[in-house]
Amino acid sequence: MKLVFLGPPGAGKGTIAQQAKEIYHIPHISTGDLFRAAINNETALGKKVKAILASGDLVPDEVTIEMVKERLAEADATNGFILDGFPRTIPQAEALAKIIELDNVINFTISQEQVIRRLSGRRIAKQSGKVYHLVWNPPKVEGICDESGEPLIQRDDDKEGAILNRLEVYEAQTAPLIDYYDKLGKLKNIDASKSVSDVLAETKKVLG
Ligand code: AP5
User: Is 123 one of the catalytic residues?
Assistant: First the structure.
């Protein structure tokens, strides 16, 4: 199953992908996670994109497309994958179409107000990769990851100025993909404003 999860920042794409990958036995490929790993490991790519991610702008298409091509060529992606956060521009979608045919594009719909509440309350554990929310998905012990025991942190781009920039970038550069995939007959809309279990159930229903 070759899937793209589309939707505004904070819609819950990563949260649903983490569970869907276990159900469908396919890897969850998040371009945001790949960039953050490069930043943490202080690679040449990480140094190049660090300031871009913190601001909420997009990494240039050629850099992102190259990284995704390399990731999709790995053995675990042969039978399918969930691409989360890619494509994010029309040139990225066109580059992807040249290398694979997608089965479905799931578009997670949600209001801007809800996105702001979800992003401003998000806390993450860098080592375990687990994602929490101060209100809707808190850890058992405040500020500590349930799995690894490490302290939780706030992503730089989850601070107010960067959130607003990300929403503008989404509207200008990523939202046009909704129409692009709709015209190709690939798009399935899912109401992402509901609880995690409801959104997951709806995703499973759509994917079969
Ligand atoms: P990326 O990491 O992809 O950020 P994003 O798209 O903005 O998405 P998020 O990870 O912030 O949100 P999400 O939808 O996965 O929500 P989550 O499940 O965490 O990208 C970061 C940056 O990398 C970009 O800004 C850009 O610079 C660069 N980049 C990445 N891809 C690129 C590309 N293709 N081209 C160029 N640059 C690129 O949930 C959010 C919160 O809500 C969590 O706290 C969660 O617990 C909570 N939550 C989730 N679902 C629910 C629910 N149903 N009910 C209540 N709470 C919920």
Answer: no
Residue 177 counted as domain residue? yes
Distance CA(82)–CA(93), nearest Å, equals 14
Q: Give the lowest-confidence range in 85-94, 155-164, 175-184.
A: 155-164
By the 8 A CB rule, do 109 and 190 touch? yes
Cα–ligand 1 centroid distance for 12 (angstroms): 7
How many C-beta atoms surround the C-beta of residue 67 within 10 A? 19
Q: Is 155 a catalytic residue?
A: yes
Decide: pTM greater than 0.90: yes
- Closest C-alpha among 162, 163, 145 to residue 153: 145
pLDDT the model gives residue 160: 87
Q: For residue 159, how many other CB atoms are within 10 A of its CB?
A: 14
CATH code for the domain of 29: 3.40.50.300
Q: What mean pLDDT is reported for the chain? A: 96
Ligand 1 midpoint to CA 115 (Å):
10
- Ligand 1 atom nearest to 49, measured from its CA: 27
Residue 5 β-bridge partners: 84, 106
Angle at which helices 61-72 and 31-40 cross, to 10°: 100
**Residue span of the structural domain in which 38 resides:** 2-110+167-201
8 A C-beta contact, residue 122 and residue 10: yes
Residue nearest to atom 17 of ligand 1 (CA): 12
Furthest CA-CA distance within the chain: 47
Instruction: Tell me the mean pLDDT in the region 99-124.
Output: 96
